[in-house]
Amino acid sequence: MIDLRYPYLLLLLLPALWFTWRSPYRWGIPHSRPSGWLARVSSHLVPALLALCLILAAAGPEQRRAIRGRAPVVDFAMVLDGSSSMKAMDDGKEDRWTAARRLLRVFIANRPDDRFSLILFSAHPVTLSPLTADHVRLWRTLERLELDSRDDGTAIGSALMTAVRRLAESPARSRVILLLTDGAQNRGRVSPQEAAQEAKSKGIRIHTVAIGKASGESLYPVDGNKLASLKVETDPATLQGIAHTTGGEALAADDPQGLARSLKAIDQLEKTALPVDPPSEGTPLARWFLVMACIFAMPLTIDIIRKRGKRLPVWMGEA
Fold first, then answer.
1. What percentage of the chain's residues is helix, strand, coil (to nearest 5)?
2. Other Cβ atoms within 10 Å of 86 Cβ, number
């Protein structure tokens, strides 16, 4: 299938063809008026074909062919808690922050046909990546990401509202927010319930994963390699309300293994059997029209060079 990137440029065809046909090119500088059939036809045809090739090249013709992996079945906004409490360790080996980033990379790798946006939040949300199918770049972003406790807090509502805005204009058949947090809201002007209602109005589902122990204490690094016990305030009821409002699921992960099971469950929930329009990519064809333009321009260029320094005949002054 042939497609044009700038089809409106074809509007130039009619005036260009009319002008070139009405103003024929005069070959050479003969002593008498040109009367040969070939000279008469080519004087109209060659400039018209040259204009045609140049306009078609400018219109950006492309040959489109079907490819795999560019039409998203699901668009995800991954909302990751970046508060200082994510440094806590629930199994004594791997902290919540490291486990969450590692398992999100696995989640992305298992869904090669989907697009992802990444939003990090503490006291304020920050969009680290808009919707993209560049999974390698997302991997690298998650791998290099570090916690910054200078602006600490947990603004769940604001982070969810940012994710809703990222997905609101998405053309994907299914739009999902994946919220990973280990705390309760203590910052921000938007409540989680308000953000959930906004997501529901846009047809966006929210799956929540509560990371860490709902009761008891976890180990938290202090003063280098030392560990201290820490209890993080959680709010599982709010997370359940967010998910149920939007038709999503509320899951809990007491340790990295539980987080892995939660993300696997969400991966299974978002498998869709809906047909996807066949994606395609374009191969530019403008260079071939430019090559043809060069071919038609060559006899004109040679003729113009031959004319240099020659006197005009009398009959051309009469025209």
1. 45, 20, 35
2. 25
CATH level 3 topology of 74-269? Rossmann fold (3.40.50)
Q: Where are the domains of the chain?
A: 2-65+280-318, 74-269
CA distance 170 to 73: 11
Residue 250 CA: distances (Å) to CA of 165, 196, 271: 22, 13, 17
Angle value at C-alpha 165, between 159 and 171, nearest 5 degrees: 135
Q: At 27, phi and psi to the nearest 5? A: -75, 135
Strands 205-211 and 218-222: what pairing?
A: unpaired
3-class SS of residue 95: strand
Give CA angle at 142 (141, 148), nearest 5°.
95
pTM above 0.70, yes or no: no
Give the alpha-carbon dihedral of 18, 19, 24, 26, to 10 degrees: -160
pLDDT digit string, tens, across residues 46-105: 999 999 999 999 998 988 776 554 445 789 999 999 998 888 887 767 889 999 999 999
Question: Listing from the earlier edge strand, what are the strands of the sheet with 115-121?
Answer: 125-132, 115-121, 74-81, 174-181, 205-211, 250-253
Q: Give the pair of three-digit tokens for residue 186.
A: 């203590």
Report the distance separating Cα 86 and Cα 67, nearest Å. Answer: 40
Contacts of residue 23, Cβ cutoff 8 Å, sequence gap at least 6: 47
